[in-house]
Amino acid sequence: MPPKVKTEVAKAVKETVKKTVRAKKVKKVEFKYERSTTSKFKFGAHVGASGGVSNSVINARNLGANSFALFLKSPRKWVSPPISAEEIDKFKSLCEEHGYDPRTDVLPHGSYFINLANPDPEKEEKAFDGFLDDLHRCEQLNIGLYNFHPGSSLDGDHREALERLAKNINRAIKETSFVKIVIENMAGHGNLIGSNLQDIRDVIDIVEDKSRVGVCVDTCHTFAAGYDISTEEKFEAFWKEFDNIVGAEFLSAIHLNDSKAPLGANRDLHQFLGQGFLGLEAFRVVANSPRLHNIPIILETPVGNDDSYYGEEIKLLELLEDKTIDDTEFVEKKEKLSKLGAKERSEHEKKFETKKAKTAKKTAGDDIASLVTKRPKRK
User: Fold this and answer.
1) What are the boundaries of the region Disordered (predicted)?
2) Among candidates 117, 203, 104, 181, which has minimal Cα distance to 155?
3) CB-CB contact of 117 with 149 (8 Å)
4) pLDDT, tens digit (0-9, with 9 covering 90-100), for 41-74
5) What are the tens digits of pLDDT across the range 212-264?
6) pLDDT per position as a tens digit, 90-127
7) Domains along the chain?
8) Do the bridges between strand 270-271 and strand 258-259 make them parallel or antiparallel, or are there none, so unpaired?
9) How far apart are CA 117 and CA 109, in angstroms?
10) What is the pLDDT of residue 334?
11) What is d(CA 271, CA 178) in angstroms, rounded to the nearest whole number?
């Protein structure tokens, strides 16, 4: 063998040996929580995507999630860099590797800045551009669902705001191919749209392609808006109302949160499962509701910088499957979690009662002033 060929062969063998050694050194990825293959539900969580959207897949898998949510860009900036082709391919590849169908298991959350109902035309257009950018990102990643807050009428007419919102949804549908636009119900603060079910129905009525619109029900928002879902009977009554007003076919996702604030407080304050005013019974009912099979059920409880607690809550929800209200293990967990949240519930109960008293006093004062104004003058 000629010396030059010998040298080339030796180099090739050496490189092959190096690659083999490197491959052996690569450790198998170990995830903190096992992912259930028997659960009837797609329990998941809102995970971080720092460093690239593809990281969200690993973060979700690490929590044992069967669905997940993420921000496709910074939720507090109007403009963000586009997603690179490399990140798009990596996201798709990781979803396939870990068994997530991006069309059904991933629920991105829209920017908090977006208000498609804004009465100011310039601000409305800016919001639409940000909204459409998110939808395009979804379709680049083959994501089939996109959740967003429906916005506010601000100082404008409420009915006109609903019409503006629906108009912009129609515009967005025409400029995209397949992503379903999922409207989230709200807690009822100020002039927000969507704190009552009729708002959502009114918007859907104006949407032209109803196959491209859906609803995400947030349990905390629902309770804060005055719909009591804390027991099985009340939970079923809410869904009967939902079906009658909105329509069961539009339910596309759930945001699963307990509430720090009492029923009807109109405050969007998420709490850990079982520690708030909803209590663990509400989530036992969720974990035994056939209507919630096969849709993303996303935790948004206040985990701070460490989202590993989501893994514990996912396992708690899976444990609640097939549990009855008098099951000993369930009763013990319910009491334990209730005690953990007792102090915060008491604090928020006092704030709510103070607010109600002030509102009642103001209303009484306004009524008296109105009577005085209307009293006929003596001749």
Assistant:
1) 342-379
2) 117
3) no
4) 999 999 999 999 999 999 999 999 999 999 999 8
5) 999 999 999 999 999 999 999 999 999 999 999 999 999 999 999 999 999 99
6) 999 999 999 999 999 999 999 989 999 999 999 999 99
7) 31-340 (3.20.20.150)
8) antiparallel
9) 18
10) 98
11) 34
Question: What's the token pair of residue 345?
Answer: 């519930």
> What does the pLDDT read at residue 26?
39
Planar angle of CA 211, 215, 217, nearest 5 degrees: 160
**Contact indicator for 115, 156 with CB cutoff of 8 Å:** no
Instruction: Name which of 325, 354, 309 is nearest 46 in CA terms.
Output: 309
Nearest-Å Rg of the Cα atoms of the chain is: 25
Q: Mean pLDDT score of the chain, rounded to an integer?
A: 91
Give dist(CA 187, CA 226) in Å, integer: 8
Coil/strand/helix, residue 51? coil
Active site residues: 76, 109, 112, 149, 184, 218, 221, 255, 268, 270, 300
Cα separation, 303 vs 310, whole angstroms: 7
Q: How far is CA 187 from the centre of its chain?
A: 13
Tokens found for residue 65: 């999630």
pTM attached to this predicted model = 0.88
Which residue is it, tokens 């996201």?
A: 91
**Dist CA 224 CA 93 (whole Å):** 39
Measured in residues, the chain has a length of 379
- The answer to whether 150 touches 194, Cβ cutoff 8 Å, is yes
